[in-house]
Specification:
With 170 residues, the chain is α+β, with helices and mostly antiparallel strands. Helices cover 54% and strands 28% of the residues. Strands 1, 2, 3, 4 and 5 form a five-stranded mixed beta sheet that branches. A hairpin with a 6-residue loop joins strand 2 and strand 3. The longest helix is centred in the first third of the chain and has 46 residues. It is rod-shaped, with a radius of gyration of 36 Å.
Length: 170
């Protein structure tokens, strides 16, 4: 009789181990289905993150390439800007009158220094137009923010150009 009771207890224990209390087969299947769905969503998120990481690396490389091609290194920026502006003015047959610079650091753009430039040149109208066209074709990235053209006493026209460019830390 003790053996029979022990046998029944073993069967009950085995049944409890194999099938935990409170969850039916349908509930366990539903739990398995939910786990598989969470796994699929996680795999999709990982793929999306890897794709975003790849796009970010590509954007960083493009940014470095563009910056290297169009923006000056801080150590040589001013001499290169002066040389570029004087060369463009001479090629356009203009007389440079004045060039001023203003530095602006922007905490939103670490590594970049904005350089505001005001250049005043004198010459004929076609020469002024040629100068602006050459600025737009320059290897430097000039952003023209404004210009003012006035009559110059006996020298044609006087143009004051407000521009910006950037330099980068190497």
């Amino acid at each position: 009789m003790i053996l029979a009771v022990l046998g029944v207890l073993n069967a009950v224990l085995l049944l409890l181990i194999v099938r935990p209390l409170g969850r039916s087969l349908a509930q366990r299947q539903e739990e398995l289905t939910q786990s598989r769905a969470r796994y699929d969503r996680t795999i999709a998120n990982v793929r999306q993150m890897r794709d975003l990481e790849s796009k970010l690396q590509s954007a960083i490389q493009n940014d470095r390439k563009f910056s290297g091609e169009h923006f000056l290194d801080r150590r040589t920026a001013f001499s290169s800007m002066v040389t570029d502006l004087e060369k463009l003015a001479m090629e356009s047959q203009l007389r440079p009158v004045n060039v001023t610079y203003q530095l602006k650091e922007d905490p939103k753009r670490p590594g970049f220094l904005t350089v505001g430039v005001t250049v005043v040149v004198e010459g004929g109208y076609p020469d002024l137009v040629r100068f602006i066209n050459k600025l737009e074709q320059s290897r430097l990235f000039w952003i023209i923010g404004g210009l003012n053209v006035t009559n110059s006493a006996g020298r044609g026209l006087r143009m004051s150009l407000q521009m910006e460019t950037f330099s980068v830390s190497s």
